[in-house]
C-alpha cells in the first residue's frame, strides 16, 4: 500500500471501487476528529467517496498532526535511550577464543 513517510509512516492511502481510503485512524485532535466524522469508516479509517471532491484542507491537517505526532515520538525515543556500555580493550582481548594446538585435536 502506498505511503508517505518522514521518520516513520505518516499516512497510507489506497483506491477502492467506490472510495479512496486514508489510514491509519486519526486521533489526538478533537476538532479534527469532529470534522472527519462524515468520512469515518467502520474501523476508524477514512473513506473519501469517488463521487465527491477530496477535502484537501482536511488531508493537510491530518498530515500536519501526524508530523507532529511522529516528531514527538522520535524525541521521546532519543531522550529515553540508555547509553551503551563501553568495553575496555583489555576485556575484549580476554574474550578471545583460546587456541588449541593441532596435535591436541581429535
Average pLDDT number: 81
Largest sheet: 4 strands, antiparallel
In N-to-C order, the SSE pattern is: EEEHEHH
- Shape summary: elongated
Percent helix, as a range, is: 25-40%
Low-confidence stretches: none
The side-by-side strand order for the widest beta sheet comes to: 1-2-3-4
Question: Which descriptors would you attach to this protein?
Answer:
alpha+beta; Aspartate Aminotransferase, domain 1; four-stranded antiparallel beta sheet; elongated; 106 residues
Fold topology:
Elements: E1 3-5, E2 9-15, E3 19-23, H1 30-36, E4 46-49, H2 56-80, H3 89-94
Antiparallel strand pairs: 1-2, 2-3, 3-4
What does this structure look like?
- This protein has a single domain (3-80), classed as Aspartate Aminotransferase, domain 1 (Alpha-Beta Complex), CATH 3.90.1150.200.
- It contains 3 helices and 4 strands.
- The chain has 106 residues and is an alpha+beta fold.
- Strands 1-2-3-4 form a 4-stranded antiparallel beta sheet.
Brief sketch in words of this structure:
The chain has 106 residues and is α+β, with helices and mostly antiparallel strands.
